[in-house]
From TrEMBL:
InterPro entries: AAA+_ATPase (IPR003593), ABC_transporter-like_ATP-bd (IPR003439), ABC_transporter-like_CS (IPR017871), MacB-like_ATP-bd (IPR017911), P-loop_NTPase (IPR027417). This is Peptide ABC transporter ATPase. It comes from Levilactobacillus spicheri DSM 15429. SUPFAM superfamilies: P-loop containing nucleoside triphosphate hydrolases (SSF52540). It comes from the Bacteria. CDD domains: ABC_MJ0796_LolCDE_FtsE. The keyword Mitochondrion does not apply. Keywords: ATP-binding, Nucleotide-binding, Transport. Belongs to the ABC transporter superfamily. GO terms for molecular function: ATP binding; ATP hydrolysis activity.
Length: 219
């Protein structure tokens, strides 16, 4: 579904590339973890496949069309959903309005369907009385579940997450990873997670380690 072809990237301020000649394939129905020491370039890689930045060399292809052809704005709106460590919800809205707004912005199949959005949030353990209260009243774990619910309510086939469990305790981490597995296996999406935590990575279907400018497949 998603392929990188001879992908390379460096920041102008650095005198060497972060990674080069990266050729990876990611499929729908699978989850992938990207591990690696701090500063190796995991977030940078994720920002390229999320269409937030452009590669310096090589290409990223979604179903054989390059992101250049698709257009980054178009790609970000329709093809990719992003989950951040810091949740990045609309903080002045309720969980329900967060989902409905994202569905409207991305012109999702279920846009405007309140019952659908409610059900997703309820399935993720957001209680009835929390659905319409400001998200800032929720705990970190609950806010991250709302961020995940948002990716489930939208149609993007690719879900990328940068340290999604970085702020969570063990129980919430387990719940969040189980949910990502459901998104991959039941919604048939492709999930790519950057994480420092080997335990989190071990629960994904495949693992890569970014080391010495290369991605090594571990499993
Ligand atoms: N905008 C930027 N301009 C210049 N250098 C940057 C920029 N963003 C990141 N870097 C540098 O590029 C390298 C890779 O950063 P990146 O955030 O991708 O690493 P990471 O593997 O995700 O790290 P961590 O696990 O600590 O989040 C680091 O050395 C970082 O300092």
């Amino acid at each position: 579904m998603l392929k990188t072809q001879d992908l390379g990237y460096w920041y102008q301020t650095a005198n060497e590339p972060l990674f080069q000649n990266v050729n990876l394939t990611f499929d729908v129905g699978k989850s992938y973890a990207i591990l690696g020491h701090s500063g190796t370039g995991k977030t940078t890689f994720l920002s390229l496949i999320a269409g937030l930045d452009k590669p310096k060399t090589g290409e990223i292809l979604l179903e054989d069309r390059s992101l250049k052809q698709i257009g980054l704005t178009n790609y970000r709106r329709h093809d990719v959903a992003i989950v951040f460590q810091a949740y990045n919800l609309f903080t002045y809205m309720s969980p329900l309005d967060n989902l409905l707004t994202a569905m409207a912005i991305t012109n999702a199949k279920h846009a405007g369907d309140k019952a659908y959005a409610r059900q997703i949030l309820k399935d993720l353990g957001i209680a009835d009385d929390q659905l319409t209260r400001n998200v800032q009243h929720l705990s970190g774990g609950q806010q991250q579940r709302v961020a995940i619910a948002r990716t489930m309510a939208c149609d993007a086939q690719l879900v990328v997450a940068d340290e999604p469990t970085g702020n969570l305790d063990e129980d919430n981490t387990r719940a969040v990873i189980a949910q990502f597995q459901k998104i991959a296996h039941e919604q048939h999406k492709c999930v790519i997670i950057v994480t420092h935590e080997p335990d989190v990575a071990a629960q994904c279907d495949h693992q890569f380690r970014l080391e010495n400018k290369r991605f090594k497949q571990l499993a």
